[in-house]
Amino acid sequence: MEGPRLRRPLTSVPPLPANAMDGAKAVLESARLFRYGEHVPEGTWVARLERAFADHFGTRFAVAVNSGGSAMFLALRSAGVEAGDVVLLNAFTLAPVPGAIEHLGARVVLVDVDENLLVDLEDLEAAIVEHRPKAFLLSHMRGHVADMAGVVALCEAHGVLLVEDCAHTLGASFGGRPTGLFGKAGCFSLQTWKQINAGEGGVIVTDDEDLAARAILASGAYMLHAQHGTPPSEEAIQRWAPHTPNCSMRLNELAAAIALPQLASLEERNAAWRAIYRRLEAGLAGLPNLRIPQTLPDVVHAPTSFQFLAALPAEDLEARLAICAERGVPIKWFGRQHATGFTSVHRHWGYVEARPLPKGDAVLAGLCDIRLPSDLTEEEVATVVAVVRLAFGH
Ligand SMILES: *Cc1c(COP(=O)(O)O)cnc(C)c1O
Protein backbone atom coordinates (compact mmCIF):
# COMPACT_ATOMS: atom_id res chain seq x y z
CA MET A 1 0.00 0.00 0.00
CA GLU A 2 1.32 3.43 -0.97
CA GLY A 3 1.17 6.39 1.41
CA PRO A 4 0.83 6.74 5.16
CA ARG A 5 0.14 3.75 7.36
CA LEU A 6 0.33 3.35 11.12
CA ARG A 7 2.29 0.25 12.10
CA ARG A 8 1.44 0.20 15.79
CA PRO A 9 -2.15 -0.58 16.84
CA LEU A 10 -3.93 2.29 18.58
CA THR A 11 -5.44 -0.35 20.85
CA SER A 12 -2.01 -1.18 22.28
CA VAL A 13 -1.61 -0.67 26.03
CA PRO A 14 1.57 1.07 27.23
CA PRO A 15 3.70 -1.02 29.62
CA LEU A 16 3.08 -0.67 33.35
CA PRO A 17 5.78 1.19 35.31
CA ALA A 18 8.40 -1.06 36.94
CA ASN A 19 7.26 -0.11 40.45
CA ALA A 20 3.71 -1.23 39.64
CA MET A 21 5.13 -4.65 38.73
CA ASP A 22 7.18 -4.69 41.95
CA GLY A 23 4.10 -3.89 44.01
CA ALA A 24 2.05 -6.53 42.24
CA LYS A 25 4.76 -9.11 42.86
CA ALA A 26 4.93 -8.22 46.56
CA VAL A 27 1.16 -8.64 46.87
CA LEU A 28 1.24 -12.00 45.09
CA GLU A 29 4.11 -13.22 47.24
CA SER A 30 2.23 -12.24 50.39
CA ALA A 31 -0.93 -13.98 49.15
CA ARG A 32 -2.86 -11.21 50.95
CA LEU A 33 -5.09 -10.16 48.10
CA PHE A 34 -8.06 -8.97 50.14
CA ARG A 35 -8.09 -5.35 51.30
CA TYR A 36 -8.97 -6.15 54.89
CA GLY A 37 -7.09 -8.38 57.28
CA GLU A 38 -7.15 -9.09 60.94
CA HIS A 39 -3.43 -8.52 60.99
CA VAL A 40 -2.16 -5.67 58.80
CA PRO A 41 0.85 -4.15 60.55
CA GLU A 42 1.96 -1.77 57.76
CA GLY A 43 -1.48 -1.01 56.37
CA THR A 44 -2.77 -2.21 53.05
CA TRP A 45 -2.15 -1.10 49.47
CA VAL A 46 -5.80 -0.12 49.12
CA ALA A 47 -5.58 2.10 52.21
CA ARG A 48 -2.43 3.71 50.81
CA LEU A 49 -4.16 4.33 47.50
CA GLU A 50 -7.04 6.01 49.34
CA ARG A 51 -4.63 8.18 51.31
CA ALA A 52 -2.81 9.10 48.08
CA PHE A 53 -6.05 10.06 46.27
CA ALA A 54 -7.20 12.17 49.23
CA ASP A 55 -3.79 13.89 49.36
CA HIS A 56 -3.75 14.40 45.60
CA PHE A 57 -7.14 16.14 45.66
CA GLY A 58 -6.93 17.68 49.11
CA THR A 59 -10.18 16.00 50.11
CA ARG A 60 -10.97 14.65 53.57
CA PHE A 61 -11.91 11.23 52.22
CA ALA A 62 -11.21 8.84 49.38
CA VAL A 63 -12.92 5.46 49.15
CA ALA A 64 -11.57 2.82 46.77
CA VAL A 65 -14.02 0.36 45.20
CA ASN A 66 -14.04 -2.28 42.49
CA SER A 67 -15.01 -0.19 39.44
CA GLY A 68 -15.92 3.26 38.21
CA GLY A 69 -19.52 2.09 37.88
CA SER A 70 -19.52 0.99 41.53
CA ALA A 71 -18.02 4.35 42.53
CA MET A 72 -20.95 6.20 40.90
CA PHE A 73 -23.55 3.81 42.32
CA LEU A 74 -22.12 4.12 45.83
CA ALA A 75 -21.59 7.90 45.62
CA LEU A 76 -25.20 8.50 44.55
CA ARG A 77 -26.57 6.03 47.09
CA SER A 78 -24.44 7.48 49.88
CA ALA A 79 -25.45 11.04 48.95
CA GLY A 80 -29.04 10.02 49.67
CA VAL A 81 -30.41 9.13 46.22
CA GLU A 82 -33.06 6.43 46.58
CA ALA A 83 -35.10 4.15 44.38
CA GLY A 84 -37.68 6.16 42.45
CA ASP A 85 -35.71 9.43 42.55
CA VAL A 86 -34.89 11.18 39.30
CA VAL A 87 -31.20 11.55 38.42
CA LEU A 88 -30.27 13.78 35.51
CA LEU A 89 -27.46 12.66 33.21
CA ASN A 90 -25.90 14.44 30.24
CA ALA A 91 -26.67 12.51 27.07
CA PHE A 92 -23.05 12.11 25.90
CA THR A 93 -21.80 9.39 28.23
CA LEU A 94 -20.97 5.70 28.43
CA ALA A 95 -23.32 2.83 29.31
CA PRO A 96 -21.98 2.20 32.87
CA VAL A 97 -23.16 5.68 33.87
CA PRO A 98 -26.92 5.24 33.28
CA GLY A 99 -26.25 1.71 34.52
CA ALA A 100 -25.14 3.02 37.93
CA ILE A 101 -28.37 5.05 38.22
CA GLU A 102 -30.54 2.09 37.16
CA HIS A 103 -28.70 -0.12 39.64
CA LEU A 104 -30.05 2.15 42.38
CA GLY A 105 -33.59 1.87 41.08
CA ALA A 106 -33.50 5.58 40.34
CA ARG A 107 -34.82 7.03 37.08
CA VAL A 108 -32.46 8.40 34.43
CA VAL A 109 -33.52 11.63 32.70
CA LEU A 110 -31.14 12.64 29.93
CA VAL A 111 -30.01 16.22 29.35
CA ASP A 112 -29.01 17.54 25.94
CA VAL A 113 -25.41 18.32 24.96
CA ASP A 114 -24.17 21.07 22.66
CA GLU A 115 -22.00 21.11 19.52
CA ASN A 116 -18.87 20.79 21.68
CA LEU A 117 -20.21 17.70 23.50
CA LEU A 118 -20.80 19.71 26.69
CA VAL A 119 -23.97 19.66 28.76
CA ASP A 120 -26.43 22.27 27.48
CA LEU A 121 -27.13 24.56 30.43
CA GLU A 122 -30.48 25.74 29.08
CA ASP A 123 -31.72 22.18 28.78
CA LEU A 124 -30.25 21.35 32.19
CA GLU A 125 -32.36 24.08 33.75
CA ALA A 126 -35.44 22.98 31.79
CA ALA A 127 -34.97 19.37 32.93
CA ILE A 128 -34.49 20.46 36.55
CA VAL A 129 -37.70 22.50 36.47
CA GLU A 130 -39.68 19.77 34.71
CA HIS A 131 -38.40 16.65 36.49
CA ARG A 132 -37.42 17.87 40.00
CA PRO A 133 -34.35 15.62 40.18
CA LYS A 134 -32.62 14.60 43.37
CA ALA A 135 -29.22 14.64 41.70
CA PHE A 136 -27.30 15.45 38.53
CA LEU A 137 -24.63 12.90 37.58
CA LEU A 138 -22.38 14.91 35.27
CA SER A 139 -20.27 12.67 33.07
CA HIS A 140 -17.12 14.33 31.72
CA MET A 141 -17.29 11.86 28.87
CA ARG A 142 -14.09 11.48 26.80
CA GLY A 143 -12.57 14.25 28.88
CA HIS A 144 -14.83 17.11 27.72
CA VAL A 145 -15.34 19.45 30.69
CA ALA A 146 -18.39 21.73 30.69
CA ASP A 147 -18.84 25.22 32.14
CA MET A 148 -18.59 24.07 35.75
CA ALA A 149 -19.38 27.52 37.15
CA GLY A 150 -22.71 27.40 35.30
CA VAL A 151 -23.41 23.79 36.32
CA VAL A 152 -22.69 24.45 40.00
CA ALA A 153 -24.80 27.64 40.01
CA LEU A 154 -27.81 25.80 38.56
CA CYS A 155 -27.50 22.84 40.93
CA GLU A 156 -27.15 25.11 43.94
CA ALA A 157 -30.04 27.36 42.92
CA HIS A 158 -32.37 24.36 42.61
CA GLY A 159 -31.06 22.19 45.46
CA VAL A 160 -29.83 19.42 43.15
CA LEU A 161 -26.98 17.18 44.37
CA LEU A 162 -24.06 17.20 41.96
CA VAL A 163 -21.91 14.08 41.51
CA GLU A 164 -19.15 14.00 38.89
CA ASP A 165 -18.15 11.06 36.70
CA CYS A 166 -14.43 11.71 36.19
CA ALA A 167 -13.56 8.40 34.55
CA HIS A 168 -11.87 10.36 31.74
CA THR A 169 -10.72 13.46 33.62
CA LEU A 170 -8.17 12.43 36.23
CA GLY A 171 -5.89 15.46 36.03
CA ALA A 172 -8.32 17.82 34.28
CA SER A 173 -9.48 21.09 35.82
CA PHE A 174 -11.84 24.04 35.35
CA GLY A 175 -10.73 27.47 36.54
CA GLY A 176 -7.80 25.82 38.32
CA ARG A 177 -10.06 23.46 40.29
CA PRO A 178 -9.71 19.72 39.55
CA THR A 179 -12.76 17.90 38.24
CA GLY A 180 -14.20 15.75 40.98
CA LEU A 181 -14.29 18.63 43.47
CA PHE A 182 -17.28 20.58 42.16
CA GLY A 183 -20.07 18.60 43.80
CA LYS A 184 -20.76 16.19 46.63
CA ALA A 185 -18.40 13.55 45.26
CA GLY A 186 -16.08 12.80 42.35
CA CYS A 187 -15.90 9.29 40.88
CA PHE A 188 -12.86 7.85 39.11
CA SER A 189 -12.18 4.62 37.24
CA LEU A 190 -8.98 2.55 37.24
CA GLN A 191 -10.03 0.53 34.21
CA THR A 192 -7.38 -0.09 31.53
CA TRP A 193 -8.45 2.71 29.16
CA LYS A 194 -8.37 5.53 31.71
CA GLN A 195 -5.48 7.62 33.10
CA ILE A 196 -4.58 4.88 35.59
CA ASN A 197 -4.62 1.26 34.43
CA ALA A 198 -5.26 -1.29 37.17
CA GLY A 199 -7.54 -3.43 35.04
CA GLU A 200 -10.54 -2.66 37.22
CA GLY A 201 -11.16 -0.29 40.07
CA GLY A 202 -12.79 2.94 41.14
CA VAL A 203 -12.29 5.74 43.65
CA ILE A 204 -14.74 8.19 45.24
CA VAL A 205 -13.36 11.47 46.59
CA THR A 206 -15.46 13.61 48.92
CA ASP A 207 -15.33 15.99 51.88
CA ASP A 208 -18.63 14.70 53.24
CA GLU A 209 -18.09 12.43 56.22
CA ASP A 210 -21.54 10.83 56.09
CA LEU A 211 -21.15 10.10 52.40
CA ALA A 212 -17.74 8.51 53.02
CA ALA A 213 -19.04 6.44 55.95
CA ARG A 214 -22.03 5.21 53.96
CA ALA A 215 -19.89 4.38 50.91
CA ILE A 216 -17.39 2.44 53.03
CA LEU A 217 -20.14 0.46 54.75
CA ALA A 218 -22.02 -0.25 51.52
CA SER A 219 -18.80 -1.23 49.71
CA GLY A 220 -18.61 -4.10 52.20
CA ALA A 221 -16.23 -3.22 55.06
CA TYR A 222 -17.06 -6.17 57.37
CA MET A 223 -16.72 -3.72 60.29
CA LEU A 224 -13.04 -3.30 59.40
CA HIS A 225 -13.66 0.32 58.31
CA ALA A 226 -10.83 1.52 60.58
CA GLN A 227 -8.41 -0.01 58.05
CA HIS A 228 -9.40 2.58 55.44
CA GLY A 229 -6.85 5.13 54.29
CA THR A 230 -9.08 8.04 55.30
CA PRO A 231 -11.42 6.58 57.93
CA PRO A 232 -14.46 8.63 58.98
CA SER A 233 -15.17 9.04 62.70
CA GLU A 234 -16.54 6.06 64.59
CA GLU A 235 -19.59 8.18 65.32
CA ALA A 236 -20.36 8.62 61.61
CA ILE A 237 -19.87 4.90 61.02
CA GLN A 238 -22.18 3.98 63.88
CA ARG A 239 -24.81 6.42 62.60
CA TRP A 240 -25.06 4.52 59.33
CA ALA A 241 -23.98 0.95 60.10
CA PRO A 242 -27.42 -0.32 61.18
CA HIS A 243 -29.05 1.03 57.99
CA THR A 244 -26.46 0.10 55.37
CA PRO A 245 -26.41 -3.18 53.48
CA ASN A 246 -23.08 -4.74 52.42
CA CYS A 247 -23.03 -4.55 48.60
CA SER A 248 -19.52 -6.12 48.28
CA MET A 249 -17.82 -3.66 45.94
CA ARG A 250 -14.32 -3.67 47.40
CA LEU A 251 -11.05 -3.04 45.57
CA ASN A 252 -8.41 -5.76 45.90
CA GLU A 253 -4.78 -5.36 46.92
CA LEU A 254 -3.34 -6.33 43.55
CA ALA A 255 -5.22 -3.59 41.71
CA ALA A 256 -4.25 -1.01 44.36
CA ALA A 257 -0.56 -1.96 44.20
CA ILE A 258 -0.65 -1.50 40.42
CA ALA A 259 -2.58 1.79 40.62
CA LEU A 260 -0.63 3.56 43.36
CA PRO A 261 2.62 4.30 41.47
CA GLN A 262 0.59 5.42 38.45
CA LEU A 263 -1.03 8.17 40.50
CA ALA A 264 2.46 9.41 41.35
CA SER A 265 3.41 9.56 37.65
CA LEU A 266 0.03 10.84 36.44
CA GLU A 267 1.21 14.27 35.35
CA GLU A 268 3.92 12.80 33.09
CA ARG A 269 1.34 10.79 31.20
CA ASN A 270 -1.15 13.65 31.09
CA ALA A 271 1.53 15.96 29.68
CA ALA A 272 2.27 13.39 26.96
CA TRP A 273 -1.46 13.00 26.20
CA ARG A 274 -1.94 16.78 25.96
CA ALA A 275 0.99 17.06 23.54
CA ILE A 276 -0.46 14.28 21.36
CA TYR A 277 -3.88 15.95 21.43
CA ARG A 278 -2.44 19.36 20.46
CA ARG A 279 -0.59 17.84 17.49
CA LEU A 280 -3.73 16.11 16.29
CA GLU A 281 -5.80 19.26 16.77
CA ALA A 282 -3.30 21.36 14.80
CA GLY A 283 -2.78 18.68 12.16
CA LEU A 284 -6.48 18.17 11.44
CA ALA A 285 -7.53 21.82 11.56
CA GLY A 286 -9.16 23.20 8.45
CA LEU A 287 -10.27 19.93 6.84
CA PRO A 288 -13.58 20.17 4.98
CA ASN A 289 -16.55 18.36 6.58
CA LEU A 290 -14.64 17.86 9.81
CA ARG A 291 -14.86 19.89 13.00
CA ILE A 292 -12.95 19.49 16.26
CA PRO A 293 -14.89 20.21 19.46
CA GLN A 294 -13.64 23.28 21.29
CA THR A 295 -12.23 23.16 24.78
CA LEU A 296 -13.43 25.99 27.06
CA PRO A 297 -10.72 28.54 27.92
CA ASP A 298 -11.03 27.76 31.66
CA VAL A 299 -10.37 24.07 31.09
CA VAL A 300 -7.10 22.14 31.32
CA HIS A 301 -8.02 18.76 29.95
CA ALA A 302 -6.43 15.33 30.34
CA PRO A 303 -7.35 13.64 27.07
CA THR A 304 -6.97 9.89 26.54
CA SER A 305 -8.72 10.04 23.18
CA PHE A 306 -9.50 12.48 20.36
CA GLN A 307 -12.91 13.30 18.89
CA PHE A 308 -13.95 15.02 15.71
CA LEU A 309 -17.35 15.68 14.18
CA ALA A 310 -17.93 14.77 10.56
CA ALA A 311 -20.71 16.42 8.58
CA LEU A 312 -21.13 13.70 5.96
CA PRO A 313 -23.83 11.23 4.91
CA ALA A 314 -23.47 7.82 6.59
CA GLU A 315 -22.21 5.95 3.52
CA ASP A 316 -19.61 8.54 2.67
CA LEU A 317 -18.39 8.65 6.26
CA GLU A 318 -18.21 4.83 6.44
CA ALA A 319 -16.08 4.79 3.26
CA ARG A 320 -13.64 7.33 4.70
CA LEU A 321 -13.42 5.50 8.02
CA ALA A 322 -12.69 2.31 6.06
CA ILE A 323 -9.73 4.07 4.41
CA CYS A 324 -8.42 5.03 7.86
CA ALA A 325 -8.90 1.48 9.18
CA GLU A 326 -7.04 -0.01 6.20
CA ARG A 327 -4.15 2.30 7.04
CA GLY A 328 -3.96 1.22 10.66
CA VAL A 329 -6.06 4.02 12.18
CA PRO A 330 -9.30 2.50 13.50
CA ILE A 331 -11.84 5.25 14.23
CA LYS A 332 -15.03 4.62 16.16
CA TRP A 333 -18.25 6.22 15.01
CA PHE A 334 -21.01 6.98 17.51
CA GLY A 335 -23.61 7.43 14.77
CA ARG A 336 -23.81 3.75 13.90
CA GLN A 337 -27.19 2.02 13.97
CA HIS A 338 -25.99 -0.64 16.38
CA ALA A 339 -23.72 -0.23 19.38
CA THR A 340 -20.12 -1.36 18.81
CA GLY A 341 -17.06 -1.43 21.10
CA PHE A 342 -17.24 1.41 23.66
CA THR A 343 -19.53 3.58 21.54
CA SER A 344 -23.08 2.88 22.63
CA VAL A 345 -25.30 5.97 22.77
CA HIS A 346 -28.55 6.75 24.54
CA ARG A 347 -30.83 5.30 21.86
CA HIS A 348 -29.19 1.91 22.47
CA TRP A 349 -30.28 1.99 26.14
CA GLY A 350 -33.84 0.75 25.94
CA TYR A 351 -34.31 1.08 29.71
CA VAL A 352 -33.86 4.87 29.60
CA GLU A 353 -36.96 6.90 28.85
CA ALA A 354 -36.71 8.80 25.58
CA ARG A 355 -36.52 12.60 25.77
CA PRO A 356 -36.00 14.97 22.82
CA LEU A 357 -32.27 15.74 22.53
CA PRO A 358 -32.06 17.66 19.27
CA LYS A 359 -28.59 19.17 19.70
CA GLY A 360 -27.01 16.03 21.09
CA ASP A 361 -28.51 13.77 18.46
CA ALA A 362 -27.20 16.04 15.71
CA VAL A 363 -23.69 16.04 17.13
CA LEU A 364 -23.57 12.32 18.03
CA ALA A 365 -24.60 11.39 14.47
CA GLY A 366 -21.22 12.60 13.19
CA LEU A 367 -19.05 11.88 16.22
CA CYS A 368 -15.79 10.05 15.50
CA ASP A 369 -13.41 8.84 18.17
CA ILE A 370 -9.71 7.91 18.15
CA ARG A 371 -8.08 6.19 21.10
CA LEU A 372 -4.66 7.55 22.06
CA PRO A 373 -2.08 5.42 23.84
CA SER A 374 -0.03 7.85 25.97
CA ASP A 375 3.22 6.59 24.48
CA LEU A 376 2.44 7.44 20.83
CA THR A 377 5.55 8.97 19.31
CA GLU A 378 5.63 12.26 17.43
CA GLU A 379 6.14 10.30 14.22
CA GLU A 380 3.16 8.05 14.95
CA VAL A 381 0.95 11.05 15.63
CA ALA A 382 2.10 12.56 12.32
CA THR A 383 1.09 9.31 10.62
CA VAL A 384 -2.37 9.42 12.21
CA VAL A 385 -2.74 12.99 10.97
CA ALA A 386 -1.60 12.02 7.48
CA VAL A 387 -4.04 9.09 7.32
CA VAL A 388 -7.03 11.16 8.45
CA ARG A 389 -6.07 13.97 6.06
CA LEU A 390 -5.83 11.47 3.22
CA ALA A 391 -9.32 10.12 4.00
CA PHE A 392 -11.05 13.41 4.84
CA GLY A 393 -9.04 15.93 2.83
CA HIS A 394 -11.44 16.22 -0.10
C1 LIG B 1 -15.08 3.87 31.80
C2 LIG B 1 -16.10 4.85 32.14
C3 LIG B 1 -16.88 4.73 33.28
C4 LIG B 1 -16.95 3.55 34.20
O1 LIG B 1 -15.84 2.93 34.52
P1 LIG B 1 -15.75 1.34 34.81
O2 LIG B 1 -14.60 1.32 35.74
O3 LIG B 1 -15.55 0.66 33.51
O4 LIG B 1 -17.04 0.94 35.50
C5 LIG B 1 -17.73 5.77 33.58
N1 LIG B 1 -17.84 6.84 32.78
C6 LIG B 1 -17.14 6.98 31.67
C7 LIG B 1 -17.32 8.20 30.84
C8 LIG B 1 -16.25 5.99 31.29
O5 LIG B 1 -15.58 6.12 30.16
The CATH topology of the largest domain: Aspartate Aminotransferase, domain 2
Under CATH, the homologous superfamily of the largest domain reads: Type I PLP-dependent aspartate aminotransferase-like (Major domain)
Number of helices: 13
CATH class of the largest domain: Alpha Beta
Report the C-alpha radius of gyration, rounded: 21 Å
Quick one: how many beta strands? 14
The secondary-structure class comes to alpha/beta
Q: Report helical residue fraction.
A: 25-40%
Number of domains: 2
Shape: globular
Largest sheet at a glance? 7 strands, mixed
Oligomer: single chain
- The N- to C-terminal Cα distance equals 20 Å
Going by CATH, the architecture of the largest domain would be: 3-Layer(aba) Sandwich
Strands side by side in the biggest sheet? 1-9-8-5-4-2-3
Low-confidence stretches: none
Bound molecules: pyridoxal-5'-phosphate
Beta content: 5-15%
* N-to-C SSE string, H for helix and E for strand: HHEHEHEHEHEEEEEHHHHEEEHEHEH
Descriptive terms for the model:
binds pyridoxal-5'-phosphate; Aspartate Aminotransferase, domain 2; seven-stranded mixed sheet; 394 residues; alpha/beta
